[in-house]
Amino acid sequence: MxxxxxxxxxxxxxxxxxxxxxxxxxxxxxxxxxxxxxxxxVFTQGFAAGLGITEPVTSPTFTILQIYEExxxxxxxxxxxxxxxxxxxxxxxxxxxxxxxxxxxxxxAERVEDLLPADTVRITIEKDAGKGDxxxxxxxxx
Length: 142
Prior knowledge:
The protein is of the alpha/beta class. 25% of the residues lie in helices and 27% in strands. The protein contains four helices and seven strands. The protein has helices at residues 10-23, 40-50, 86-90, 94-98; strands at residues 2-7, 29-34, 65-68, 75-79, 103-107, 121-127, 136-141. A seven-stranded mixed sheet has the order 1-7-6-2-5-4-3, with helices on one face. Helix 1 packs across helix 2 (40-50).
């Protein structure tokens, strides 16, 4: 099933993330793909808020993984932009998080596509300059 949303502002992107976070279940894996500056972090901040996480959520570009445990479910926030091969991802203990009691949200997930479970929720965020600087098309496939 695929759903398409149109966001006209970062606040709307945040709210879509929050809505999904409120409904997330343990074991959910989300593959989040978008170019730089498309709103991955804003979406993730909303998702974390939906889980009840109040601490600041930033992109873990240099650490690969940030763990947030204060919400109703732990959030394992991966940014695999700097991962060069899937073996490097496996060295992070990725499999343990996939099988953990929280939600895995993976930015730049196309880099580790072969490691993702079949039931991964795939989210793609795209800009369309013709519709304005803040417009985003958000495609969610399950």
